Amino acid sequence: MREIASKQQLRWAFARWAMVTVPLIVLLGFLSGRLFPAGSDNPWYRLLIKPGFTPPGWLFGAAWTLLYILLGLALAMILNARGSRRRGVAILLFVAQLIVNLVWSPLFFGAHQVTAALFTIVILFVLATATAFAFGRIRRAAGWLMAPYLVWLLYATALNFEIDRLNPNAETLVPSSATTQILS
User: Fold this and answer.
1) What CA–CA distance (Å, rounded) separates 86 from 102?
2) Which of 82, 119, 154, 159 is most enclosed, with most CB atoms within 10 A?
3) How many other C-beta atoms are found inside a 10 Å radius of the C-beta of residue 142?
């Protein structure tokens, strides 16, 4: 007996997936960003020369939260597309790009590896683009939900490139530590 699910059943199935994928991806992104202080909370980052198109610090958190929500929704659409033969490859690409995404922040802010972070974000962009196309072949809306992410990755790549160019010694830059000595 083969029954076709109603539109309402399909919406509820998508909603169940989204209730898992959206919080999970937002949480993973948050944890990756919290491994090391980022932005103006990071003394090393404050010492870097930044290009004129560097946005205010609050924008990064807002942008990434929105982007992770969109990624979670796109993934939920693909997970809900149970009949697609392409679904496995699309999910594998998504997981690969997400892992690379989660590596970037600790690499840049924690290890101070600006050049390695630049190569990482280029790889991330390639994987994210492949994911968006794979998603789009399964569910057009899922592919389009990845578009703002790709635009932001291009911007972040340009920002990473300029920081690398303006700070050739970024890896060796060490913030001075404020110490207090009490003399007796």
Assistant:
1) 25
2) 159
3) 27
In the chain the domains, ranked by start, together with CATH numbers, are: 7-48+56-171 (1.20.1260)
> Is-contact 91 79, C-beta < 8 A?
yes
Q: Are 135 and 90 in contact (CB under 8 A)?
A: yes
Q: What is the pTM of this model?
A: 0.86
**Averaged pLDDT for residues 136-149:** 97
In Å, what is the CA distance from 14 to each residue of 8, 17, 30? 10, 5, 24
More confident call, 103 vs 84: 103
- Contact predicate 100/127, CB 8 Å: yes
What angle separates helix 7-34 from helix 57-79, to the nearest 10 degrees? 140
pLDDT in tens, 145-183: 999 999 999 999 999 999 999 999 988 887 655 544 555
